[in-house]
Amino acid sequence: MQEPEEKKIALELLETEQAYVTRLHLLDQIFYTELMKEAKTGKTVPEEVVKMIFSNISSIYQFHAEFFLPELQKRMESWNCNPRLGDVIQKLAPFLKMYGEYVKNFDKAVELITVWSEKSPPFQELIADIQKRKVCANLTLQHHMLEPVQRIPRYELLLKDYVRKLPPESPDRGDAEKALEMIFMVAKHSNAAIAEMERLQNLWVVYQRLGLEDDIVDPSNELIKEGPIQKISTRNNSTSEKYLFLFNNMLLYCVPKVIQVGAEFQVHLRMDVDGMKVRELNDTQFPHTFLVSGKQRTLELQARSGEEMNAWIE
């Protein structure tokens, strides 16, 4: 008799999990442990750096080696009398939130390996020495470190396949569908962690360009739009180059600095978005102009094109 499709997928999950635990063992018990031991002697890199590179890999390794893999093995041994997977995966899913921290830290970790390999030849040598071992299969530390980042999407694909192949009347259908939903939420959680990290990084760059003005730096701000704009002076019928940063709560009206030491812009005016009014002006002399009026003052601004003006007004 041919094995049912869903059992093949369950076996694939078990086999990939065994290989994955081997990879985690390499990262945690070999790379992390040996680099940490060397760091403690003070000859290679600071201990803090090693901790930052490996983030929470030890927790991830222990969870898979001591809990999830044994549960899967037990389940596959008794598959013939209890062919189900959904309940085991439901137990696994909440713990996968641990990956958020690892995934969020990944780019920084790879960057640290590069920087410290240049700074500290003994650090580089130790990594190269471990990479030569058979267990590394001719792959670099960075390559092995990518594996946990790819693991949750892999669970999602396997489980989707499993649910698709289950017979409609299967006793595991309800559990498996619920498990898939949980895994999907976790995958979203780890993507959200990456998106949030990128948002904060971009925000930080903006604050640096503004010279880190105390009352502006706030991690909860959201940058909506930025760009150059012409300020119209009605007094002498001329325009001058300015720059706008629009956040969810304020509009910063800035002047580009001529001598760029440190900050790129000087904030001339801060306008609260609360109570702000924006409307298009039909000015024949200055096309694409719009008026922004707030509690602080009113600005007459000119965009470079109709599209740009509409984008600002929107």
UniProtKB/TrEMBL annotation:
All copies of the DH domain together span 5-193
Q: Name one Pfam family in it.
A: SOS1_NGEF_PH
Residues in domain PH?
222-314
Chief location of this protein within or outside the cell? cytoplasm
Single Gene Ontology BP annotation: filopodium assembly
Alphabetized, the UniProt keywords read: Cytoplasm, Cytoskeleton, Metal-binding, Phosphoprotein, Repeat, Zinc, Zinc-finger
GO CC aspect terms:
cytoplasm; cytoskeleton
Presence of keyword Repeat:
yes
Q: Where in the cell is it found?
A: Cytoplasm, Cytoskeleton
GO MF terms here are: guanyl-nucleotide exchange factor activity; zinc ion binding
The cross-references to PANTHER family, in alphabetical order and at most eight, read: FACIOGENITAL DYSPLASIA PROTEIN, FYVE, RHOGEF AND PH DOMAIN-CONTAINING PROTEIN 2
Query: What is the name of the protein in this document?
Result: FGD2 protein
Task: Name its species.
Answer: Serilophus lunatus
Q: Which gene encodes it?
A: Fgd2_0
